[in-house]
Amino acid sequence: MMKFSGGKTLAVVAVAGGAIAASIAPVMADVSAQSPSTSLVRVESPAKLKAWGAAVDVQVTYVCPRYSSAYLNVSLSQNVLGRIASGGASQQLTCTGGFETTTLYIQAQNLAFWPIETSAKAELNAYPNSPATDAREIKLQY
Known about the structure:
Blueprint: H1 6-34, E1 40-43, E2 47-50, E3 55-63, E4 69-80, E5 83-94, E6 100-107, E7 117-126, E8 132-141
Parallel strand pairs: 2-8
Antiparallel strand pairs: 1-3, 2-3, 3-6, 4-5, 4-7, 7-8
């Protein structure tokens, strides 16, 4: 009659478990590379003025986890001869897990935008991640 000790049995189970984990690990790494676990957003410069500054087309590049639902909000503000031109726009997004670029049409409030430096802020809210933000100066041009 053969007697098994606990130590040898555990060693066999550990080796078998390690072999299974090693065979699955490359697949898990590939899925992880395809779908980021964090969200990123960037306002691109320059942005294009429309209708003599009454509006601006702003391109925004973003990435968020695949199949997540996200909400993008972009705002602009600019000092024009001591007064403030501002505007904002929002867009609902579906995340692909890869870098995407979208264009938001932002209408000026109070005053037309000029073709000079402008303060831009983008916020990307993708569930379940915390918001990703980007605040920078961008150029506006025709």
